[in-house]
Amino acid sequence: MGQIQTKWEQWVQGYLLILGFIFLLWFPLILLALPLSTVENQPVIIEATLQVDDFDPLYFQNTQAQSIVPISPEELQEFQSLYPEIFVKSGLRGTYQDIFLGSVRNPCSFLTVG
């Protein structure tokens, strides 16, 4: 029924077989995923909600993709110098390419309570 193999030969063949399967399955996935990891996904909507615990929202506002713009490095530096506590408390460590501004304008001159 075949040739008798020692234990270490069986272990080596088993490990090589497992590594071959891993390489066969994961290599194409990694090869295809790496070039696409540099694509920027810009947000399409920004929503702001004011809510107390589990009650209905008191205020809701959103902005669509046409009102969302990326910021420049100078604007990020200016924002960090004006509001350093926001970056310290929240732990924001993003670059200027990761941060977007959403222009939210309420057409009413008062707060709408929902």
**How many angstroms does the end-to-end distance come to?**
79 Å
Silhouette: elongated
- Across the major sheet, the strand order is 1-2
> Order of SSEs, N→C?
HEEEHHE
Structural class: alpha+beta
Structure characterization notes:
The chain has 114 residues and is α+β, with helices and mostly antiparallel strands. It folds into 2 domains: 7-38; 45-102, no CATH class. The chain is built from 3 helices and 4 strands, in the order αβββααβ. The protein has helices at residues 7-33, 73-82, 84-90; strands spanning 45-50, 59-64, 68-70, 100-102. A hairpin with an 8-residue loop joins β1 and β2. α2 (73-82) packs across α3 (84-90). The longest helix has 27 residues, at 7-33. Mean pLDDT is 77; it is low at 109-114.
For this entry, give a set of tags.
single chain; 114 residues; two-stranded antiparallel sheet
Give me a quick take on this structure.
With 114 residues, the protein is of the alpha+beta class.
Please write out the topology.
Blueprint: H1 7-33, E1 45-50, E2 59-64, E3 68-70, H2 73-82, H3 84-90, E4 100-102
Antiparallel strand pairs: 1-2, 3-4
Helix pairs in contact: 2-3
